[in-house]
Amino acid sequence: MSTIAFIGLGNMGRPMAGFLLKAGHQLRIYARRPEVFQQEAKSLVDAGAVACASPAEAAQGADYIITNVMGPHDVAQVLHLTPESVIHTAKPGAICIDHSTIDPQSTKDIAAVMAGKGISFVDAPVSGGVKAATEGTLVMMLGGADAEVAKVKEVVKNYAKTMTHIGGVGHGQVAKLCNQIAQVINIQGVAESLRFATVNGADLQKVFEAISGGMAGSRMLDLMGPKMVARDFKAGIEARLHAKDFFLVKDVAKESGIDMPALQTVASQLEMLMESGWGHDDTSSLLRVLEA
Ligand code: NAD
Hints:
The protein is of the alpha/beta class. It has helices at residues 13-22, 42-46, 55-59, 72-81, 104-115, 129-135, 146-156, 171-199, 204-212, 219-230, 239-256, 261-275, 286-291, and strands at 3-7, 26-30, 50-52, 64-67, 95-98, 120-123, 126-127, 138-143, 160-167. The chain folds into 2 domains: 3-167, Rossmann fold (3-Layer(aba) Sandwich); 175-291, N-(1-d-carboxylethyl)-l-norvaline Dehydrogenase, domain 2 (Orthogonal Bundle), CATH 1.10.1040.
């Protein structure tokens, strides 16, 4: 069993940390808001996790340091940018595992800084949302050296259904961004399709039932179609997270000099969604953007 620091106890991080405790690992946890230890993460502390006052304290003696925060700056802040960061206390030979969705270049930059202190890095973003995190069935895409990825798999298998080693550091994030491109453009397609049905006076439920069994059928149609038909915009997947990822992809696409017209269109729809104040609602709110 290993000592594991877990930093970022949000909707995804809390259930994942719970699986590590259940597996018998020693857990050292850090949350930016101390009251989290009395509220959302109380069950982790009650089950034996050690509550720490900073990322640096959490990393003390840890074999693995897991981050599940938000964007590239957050991961850098936790790992090396501040006097309270992990880099000041982590032991050489420790392995950082980042489950946040960030861009590949920031990932490589952060890994290079950590490598300067003998600390390894594996990017391991996930797909499946809070439901899969809670059930321990996440789909994981890993980037890193073979030896480190093999060790990391032994830890993350506690909450992952599939673990695909894509390539070197940063390649896990490349795969995750590919996942987001295909997924969110599909959601926009579902929204436009159902908007078209409404405007042409067709019964939405019947259209959904018919097309989900045809060649338009997809996981996203199955997930988002019923929500759009029922106008249930309560978050399954919070739109702010898809927006963050799409803005990252837009920057990477620009730097790579590739043309991604559908991505550009959907990114501006997501911008309008965020401006409308629907960021904490479901991404099926792309339908509301079309209506507005
Ligand atoms: P969340 O907002 O519920 O939790 C994020 C946590 O990170 C919060 O507790 C926050 O306090 C902490 N945090 C953020 N910045 C920090 C910093 N600089 N220092 C310390 N703590 C910090 O978000 P989430 O849904 O748990 O998502 C976490 C990551 O997983 C994101 O990168 C997201 O894109 C990715 N992700 C989310 C989902 C999903 O469906 N929710 C699915 C796949 C991937």
